[in-house]
Amino acid sequence: MDKNFNYSSLKLGIIGGGQLGKIMSQKAKKMGFHVTILDPTFNCPAAQVSDNHIMGGFHDKKKLEQLVKETDVTTFELEHVDTSILKELFDQGYNIHPSPYVMELIQNKYEQKKLLDERGIPVPAYKDVKTKEDLAAFGFPVIQKAKLGGYDGKGVQMLKTQEEANTIALETESFIEELVDIDKELAIIVARNIEGEIKCYPVVEMLFDERVNICDSVMAPARISKEIEEKAIKISTESIKALDGVGIFGVELFLNKKGEVLVNEIAPRPHNSGHYTVEACATSQFEQIIRAVTNLPLGSTKLISPAVMVNLLGEEGYEGEPFIEGIHEALEIPELSFHFYGKSITKPFRKMGHITVLDDNIDIALEKANKAKNILKIKGSKKI
């Protein structure tokens, strides 16, 4: 796609119709682009704001081919897709970004880690698992990870003893990692366009809901030294160069107690840690991915205001049609933005929306966000 392309008629394809695809579509529509999404769920979040919805699964080769051939550029809001047909189409010259080859590599967390390690990117110590005896290679406790299919804490198991290794270990292709002595969990959104231009967003700090290992809150900027910030930016930039990726990448990092920064894993799409960019940055991650994959100049990643983002998860004990409790009281909090994704069914810990709170003082932003978090509850029509 060259600079003389008629952008007024650009057709964008998005594989995936969840909340990430929804906000991507909204940003693409703001730029005047035609948006087609592919998702198996009727009236999924992205379908509510897009021009066309191809109903199909992410491993449906015919529907994937239809999407690619009916659009000028195809991108992703999730990584768990069939790459075989996409690789064929990419090799024929269709615009698919990130490339299906990058997506295939990132799908396999072991291969992803191996590539980064080979390119000199610091990662936790890791080892392929062939037998149950391999689980004890670093001693206990140790982290076992599924090579394929893991997300939001799924496909990750801490093993504290040999007995647990024998009884609760994941029964799938996996590898192990040392248990990192974590000081903070950090993340950074890195954008890279077709011409190789790279821009980084601020380093953020992630706080997790330990019940399900899902990111609970994000603080931007992270409460770290300038030295750690520069180290995180350099490592993350080098990681995306190593992948030769085009688009938006969420790089998850560990800062250990020794002050070392290690890459945990990379998501080849908009990332939960970048939701705050909609209100807090000059260009959101959702507009940035559109710019990156359509060969437009990347936008400014300037942080306009410190911000805290909190995920709104479905309440424990409820499922069914969602009901938002506390919205009036929460929206009285100054500089709070409320996002509800439009999912028709809520379940315990399902991501149903998020809030972003701005304040010149990050600690006050966190106070306001925690106040709102305690007020807002997403409950379902049925108790379980």
UniProtKB/TrEMBL annotation:
Protein source organism: Halarcobacter mediterraneus
PANTHER family: PHOSPHORIBOSYLAMINOIMIDAZOLE CARBOXYLASE (PTHR11609:SF5), PURINE BIOSYNTHESIS PROTEIN 6/7, PUR6/7 (PTHR11609)
Pathway(s): Purine metabolism; IMP biosynthesis via de novo pathway; 5-amino-1-(5-phospho-D-ribosyl)imidazole-4-carboxylate from 5-amino-1-(5-phospho-D-ribosyl)imidazole (N5-CAIR route): step 1/2
Quaternary organization: Homodimer.
UniProt keyword annotation of ATP-binding present: yes
ATP-grasp domain segment(s): 113-294
Name the UniProt record assigns to this protein: N5-carboxyaminoimidazole ribonucleotide synthase
Catalysis performed (reactions): 5-amino-1-(5-phospho-beta-D-ribosyl)imidazole + hydrogencarbonate + ATP = 5-carboxyamino-1-(5-phospho-D-ribosyl)imidazole + ADP + phosphate + 2 H(+)
